[in-house]
Amino acid sequence: MIKTRLQLWGNKHFKFTVMSSSPFFNGSTNSATAETSRALRSLYFTRAAFSIIWVVLVSIFSKDSPEFGKVLLVIYPIWDVFGTLLDIRANKNNTTATPQYINAVISLITAVAVGIALQTGVSEALRVFGCWAVLTGIIQLLMGLIRRKSIGGQWPMIISGGQSVIAGISFIVLASAPTMGIASLAGYAAFGAFYYLLSAFRIPKTAESVIS
């Protein structure tokens, strides 16, 4: 009987302690969520700006300067490596970074593979690029679903991930078509820029609703 009463008292005391300290934990969580949202918002703007510049350069130089176009094709997945590492840094207070590290490794391997494939032809490089778009699109979609509950503003990233998978499949299937070339990837990058901008503008609003 005495042991049972002690256990009941201990449970009540534990509950009281947790309840009395919950404002502190909520404040820390809200602060971390706000910090993550600000960092991701800045990163999304940066990634959108890069994609826009890349689209402009590809549109201008892919036909008149094929060699420079090939360099741009290799640069795109390399930039994704840096962007993913910045994403991990921005999201340090939240979910596991394992999917992002996998994404970075895939992008690094893709940059090397694209460079090798270009020695054979652009169509082969487009197939490699298509495989990369499918894999990274799946990861982006999953990360959007994971982050949706914690910081919100991820629907554009979820849609972008799904669209990346579809675009990647089309690159693989249509790589040998006469109309396909490095310039064909401009639309893919442009849509990516659009979704990054949309996410950047949505995050502050959805983060406030999550915190409240």
Automatic annotation (TrEMBL):
Name assigned to this protein = DUF308 domain-containing protein
Question: Residue span of the signal peptide, if any?
Answer: none
Keywords, comma-separated and alphabetical: Membrane, Transmembrane, Transmembrane helix
Q: What is the lineage of its organism?
A: Bacteria, Pseudomonadati, Bacteroidota, Cytophagia, Cytophagales
Transmembrane ranges, per UniProt, are: 44-62, 68-88, 100-119, 125-143, 155-174, 180-198
